[in-house]
Amino acid sequence: MKVAIRVDASRFIGTGHVMRCLVLAQKLKEHGHDVVMLSRELEGNFIAYSQQQGIDVIALNAIQQVAPSAPDDYQHWLGVSLQEDASECLAKLNDFHPNWIVVDHYAIEENWHSAIKACGASILAIDDLANRPLNCEIVLDHNPWPDFENRYNAVIPTHCTPLLGPKYGLLRPTFATLRTNPVEPLNNQVIAFFSGTDPSGECLKLLNASQKFSELPFELTIVFGMANPRKDELLSEPLPPFVTLTEVLPDFEADLAACRYAFGGAGVSAIERASLGVPGTLVSVAENQRLMAEHLASSGIYRYLGNSDLTTANTYFNELTWLSDNWESLPHRLPPSDIDGNGAERVVAEMESEKITFRPMVVQDLSMVRNWRNAPEIREKMFSQHVIQPEEHERWFASIQGDESKQFFIALSQGKPVGMMSFTGIKDGTAEWGFYKSPDAPAGTGKQLLYESLVLGFECLGLNQIDSRVLAKNPKVLHLHEVLGFQKNTKQQTMLRADGSETPYYAFHLTKADWQKDQRAKNMSGKS
Fold first, then answer.
1. Residue 525, pLDDT above cutoff 60
2. Could you tell me which of 423, 435, 436, 453 has the C-alpha nearest to residue 515?
3. What pLDDT is attached to residue 524?
């Protein structure tokens, strides 16, 4: 499987998007897949760092990034138009031919997704906002939002698989190891890490607060990050004897697992701390973290200082005072969570899944679908058996645009197109389906495609009945319809062709009620 990852880092974007994508990239490579990252050369990019982690990176054209006008002005993160970015990515991927494109970018939405699908890839969108339409096959949001199960219902297509909640957290493998093998005894240490860029200067505020103390009952380690714009100012500050200031911790996960307490943002670092059960104080260091930070604080497990644009050195002085006064009585560890550190493994398993998934057919699919349809072994099983020419195919596709009574989908297995599925004549909850698989699809694809198409029709499209017509000379598909529970009209019917010849066929139908009843029976018997 070939996977391309579109992600950026900059002094405005931060480094967290790249860091979590690196976790996914490493897990994909561990499974034997080819991975390439596409990142734009912005100020504060992590291209060199990603390459040092063993990931191939294609650098997109350098631009002068404009400062966002507001914290939620994400469009300026991209630096170019959606179409320009998608076109450049397509050109760069011309020889790679990805099965999947992972995109982790707040500026990118359904128009970019639709344009990039010209390369035939499926889309996995990593997101935290749920604030714009997405045209993807999988959406991943590993944050512990309130009501996270329903957060994306209004912005993803019906065929999209949501992977939501902290169990899908993109954490480095050492977190799973440290969780199952907890460190004992713990160090008398507090670790503070707010983000790779620390845009609001929380490290400096905390350091200035610590300078007001002659002593604290713990060691304070402030990790300011590799892209912190205040690095020189921080390093020029006098350090109290109980404070360590460092750009990175070479063994961050082990040090975090061994500390008593932590300060940090409410992004992925909060998920990391929760995985290890480290108590802590939260700060919302970005607008998109505010709701999550408030939700976590409402649980009573974490302390919360509010938005970073309102915190000051005095805020941290008060928090250090509270922490010092309560140090001996604080719990060493939080109750166990369900964040086991295996989220990346779950995401890769979903990408590798041989389960058939669907995406809407787009104009870029025309040549592929026409080649499938014109293959002799497919064409001879169709009601219309002539060889379809490109012009005819293009006219047909243009004619169905905007027609809600006709829905055409591409079936995918492991991100690779394996067939076409259609529902036509959609009216009053009833539709007729049509399908064919790629001549190159593995054995067994046809049955799986039809089974998952029933799920698509009944559960995603909301149909109450699916009708079908099958040529009498196609015994394999006739049998499949019976296996799937379709009712066959006992009388053979005939279609009159334009040349005067007759084509015998059988008509079938399956109601949603009968399908659900059959599913329940199979579940009770353990059959699939």
1. no
2. 453
3. 44
